[in-house]
Structure formats: C-alpha cells, structure tokens
Design brief:
Number of strands: 5
Helix content: 25-40%
Structural class: alpha/beta
CATH superfamily: Alpha/Beta hydrolase fold, catalytic domain
Shape: globular
Distance between the termini: 9 Å
Subcellular location: Endoplasmic reticulum membrane
Number of helices: 8
Radius of gyration: 19 Å
Pfam families: PGAP1 (PF07819)
Enzyme class: hydrolase
GO cellular component, one term: endoplasmic reticulum membrane
Strand order of the largest sheet: 2-1-3-4-5
Protein name: GPI inositol-deacylase
Order of helices and strands: HHEHEHHEHEHEH
Length: about 230
C-alpha cells in the first residue's frame, strides 16, 4: 500500500452543511485493494486486522481517559493502543517553568520542565513494544502531543517507530514580532522547530498531520477508519 498515494488521492466526506447520516467513505485505492482480496466494497462493520500497535500522546491539559473512544474505535479495526498515563493535575508540573528566567524571555527549553511527560510517553512505548512482538510502533499525538512526540523521538530515539500521526498539532512556532501574538509555549515549540528533526514524510519514518473540521457525530467513525488504514 503506497503511503503517498493514500495521502494524495481525493477522499469524499459527507457535506457538513446538510449533515446527512454517516456514510462509508469510498476511496478508489482502497476499493481496488479490497476487490483484489475478493471483496467488492468496504464492509458495513470494521474487520479486525493485525496492525502495529499505536501509542497515543495526550494534548495539553488532557487526561488519558479522554481518548477511550478513540481506543475503542481503533480496536475495532485491529489496532492495539496504549495511552500515555497523564492526568489533568499532572500538567501543573509545567508551572516549574515559571521559576526559569527563560520562561519570561520566551526561550524556555523542554528539559527539565517536560521530563515527567517524556517519561510517561517512554513507559507507554515500552508497554506497546511488548504488544508489537518485534513490529514497529506508531505514535498518535493530539495537539501538543504531536510536537512532544517529535521531542520524544529526538531525545529517546526512533529505531522502533515508523509512523507519527498528529491530530491538530501546531508544528511551527507563532511568528515573532507581531503585535498581539504570544507564544503560549514560551519558547518550547520554537526549540522543537530548531533542534528536532523536521516533520518530513520519508520511507523510514512517515509523518501524517490531520487537521480540519468534522461533524461531531461522524468524527470518530471517519477518524477511526482513516487511522486504521494509516496504521496498517
């Protein structure tokens, strides 16, 4: 299955204006693949397949339990998942950065402020490696979890990671020198942009960034089907 083809080929979603009942997404590449396997069209119910495990990195202020529905959806498509164990209270640890003069200059560095988060991600990765049984892993980063995944790979290595899929992640720092523009990361995102590997799609490490607007009732069905095919 060619990744470039999957990303570049058009996909038809229901119009959000009319809010029609959810319909199965039809993609000519996937239809051809299914037909070659003896199935003419996408089945109404997900068909579990053996996929590499995925580690979900929560976004800023999120709790691990916020991703239960996504886990259930991916499981229906055969994608085992592990969510990094993060609670909302844990994010208060970032307040330690207030004691660093770099915070007020907007030049804050990720470590040691984010060491606690990177440790939780590494624990989840080690758990997922057991599920992988020698396969590579996928990382799914939501919001800030996407660029934190890039930081994790830079600090801990990426020998066992073959895909980073980000959901609504800002990969570039805000522009400097514009009135009213404030870097809410206080320099963290700028550090990632400067010193971490660029989010560039390669055969060895695939990057997929998803951002957009979905009708709420359709989001997890559409997202689950799309993610499951990207994670195979």
């Amino acid at each position: 299955m060619a990744w470039a083809t999957l990303i570049s080929m058009p996909t038809t979603f229901p119009s959000p204006r009319r809010r029609p009942p959810p319909q199965p997404i039809k993609h000519r590449h996937f239809i051809a693949t299914l037909a070659a396997a003896g199935t003419e069209e996408k089945p109404a119910q997900p068909t579990p397949v053996n996929c590499r495990p995925a580690v979900i990195l929560p976004g800023l202020g999120n709790n691990s339990s916020d991703y239960q529905k996504l886990q259930v959806t991916l499981k229906e498509y055969g994608v085992p998942t592990v969510v990094a164990k993060v609670s909302r209270v844990d994010w208060l640890r970032n307040a330690a950065g207030l004691l660093d003069p770099n915070y007020w200059r907007g030049t804050l560095r990720p470590r040691p402020v984010l060491d606690w988060y990177l440790k939780r991600v590494d624990e989840a990765v080690q758990e997922a490696r057991i599920l992988a049984e020698g396969q590579s892993l996928s990382l799914i980063g939501h919001s800030a979890g996407g660029w934190l995944a890039r930081l994790y790979m830079e600090e801990f290595g990426l020998s066992n990671i073959s895909l980073l899929l980000t959901l609504g992640t800002p990969h570039l720092p805000p522009p400097k020198g514009l009135p009213g523009v404030i870097d809410q990361t206080r320099g963290l995102l700028d550090y990632v942009d400067r010193y971490c590997a660029k989010a560039i799609y390669t055969p060895d490490l695939k990057y997929v960034c998803i951002a957009g607007r979905f009708v709420v009732r359709q989001m997890f069905g559409v997202m689950g089907w799309f993610l499951s095919h990207q994670l195979i």
